Amino acid sequence: MKSFSVASLVGLLALSATSSACLLPEERENDGHIRAIRGRQSRNNGTPIGTGDRFSGGGVAPQGLGSQGSNTSFSTILNVNEIASGLKGLASIYGIETFTTPYKTYQGASIQGAVVGGSGGQCKEAYRVFLNGNIHARERGSADNVLFFISDLLYANKTNAGLTYGSKTYTAAQVQTALSAGIVFIPLSNPDGVAYDQSSNSCWRKNRNPASGTGSTSGIDLNRNFDFLWDFNPEVRLERATYHGTSAFSEPETRGLKWVLDTYAKIRWYVDLHSYAGDVLYSWGSDENQSRYPSMTFQNSSFDSVRGILSDTPGTRGGYGEYIPAAELTAQTTAATRMVSGLNAGGGSRYYTAMQSSDLYPTSGASDDYAYSRHFADPSLNLVHSYTIEFSQGNNAASCPFYPTVAQYNANIRAVGAGFMELLLAAVELGLGDETTC
Ligand SMILES: *[C@@H]1O[C@H](CO)[C@@H](O)[C@H](O)[C@H]1NC(C)=O
Ligand SMILES: *[C@@H]1O[C@H](CO)[C@@H](O)[C@H](O)[C@H]1NC(C)=O
Ligand SMILES: *[C@@H]1O[C@H](CO)[C@@H](O)[C@H](O)[C@H]1NC(C)=O
Ligand SMILES: *[C@@H]1O[C@H](CO)[C@@H](O)[C@H](O)[C@H]1NC(C)=O
Ligand SMILES: [Zn+2]
Question: CB of 399 closer than 6 A to ligand 3?
Fold first, then answer.
């Protein structure tokens, strides 16, 4: 789609941010060679993966930590089968409606989600907030955070109780307000990758499609495969860790997320849940934002050679910034700040900050930018305020820093629970969009 230029490559490589979001430091060292993840010495894999099925094939519903005492904690991570049986448990105990996206993964897995709250029932326009988990395989606890948060909402609603995450307390009325937003959620959007990571402890990030190579070079980075400046990503030319696939939406997992945005067409707020930088990131990820030059956008290929350079000044000497209407930026930052307040109080450590995605490092093809870009590319589509939450601080004692300690795993569940609560409450206050027509 977009051409690639040496100028943008130089600009992007000059930016070697030190914080580690979804990439390991060695994956960020672009030296022009295909590079496997280095084997780490540690045999410590953090919180163990659960064995068996604590939800008995869907006969038992999960319950999160916000609806239990502050001394309650979990000692194992949900295995892939438990994520599916937990979702089934929520459907059987609370009657929520589940769905399966239409595209099977390379290994034949289905991607499942559900809808809760809103005005309930069959009206797909009633769901305005979309929470997505574990698109990156090794970010352990991502699916758990999504599933346990929804479980908390449903349990609290049913018992007419509130929720407590760390020092954040929510009333029963706030739980009902949060549910009124109408939520679409997918705990596990990369089932092949997570199954492989859980069985191999290999710090696996991508899916399992071998189109790009074999062994450690196989797999597509799903969060580079969306149709947002898809072919404008210097990383993918050099580094198999972020290989973006053979075309935008080449992967069934990403087509499934597009299907969700098309099907629940009134979604107004979207969070993609990642680890581990301790940030709430808001669009854009392609370049610094600017509200002065509406023609300076991802849609205008005349800027391809200068996009992705953050050290320039938009509007002067060829400097580029990605256009964001001022009112949309205000909503983006307001809700991001709210999420940060929840994450910091819920998890008990104040290390989360809000920032623009490109401040971490410029990206293309990411799900949050794609979701937000849709209404620019096609004005008939809904505006979707879009975020990446990067939970956790990383576990440097483990074989893979994305594998949390037991303490981190539990703190992350609480932090993300409060972050999601703040998003839902902020979304209701800031606006959910048009009335439904059904
Ligand atoms: C939680 O654990 C602490 C320390 O073990 C203990 O002092 C406290 O009483 C416990 N609180 C509850 C509510 O069980
Ligand atoms: C919340 O509780 C009310 C009252 O029990 C119930 O009617 C409603 O369906 C519940 N909402 C959800 C999303 O479960
Ligand atoms: C984004 O754009 C606005 C308006 O041009 C500007 O005020 C703001 O500082 C920019 N940066 C971030 C990180 O939001
Ligand atoms: C794209 O940018 C160029 C250079 O600034 C400008 O002349 C042109 O009008 C823009 N095109 C659109 C469609 O906005
Ligand atoms: Zn990630």
Answer: no
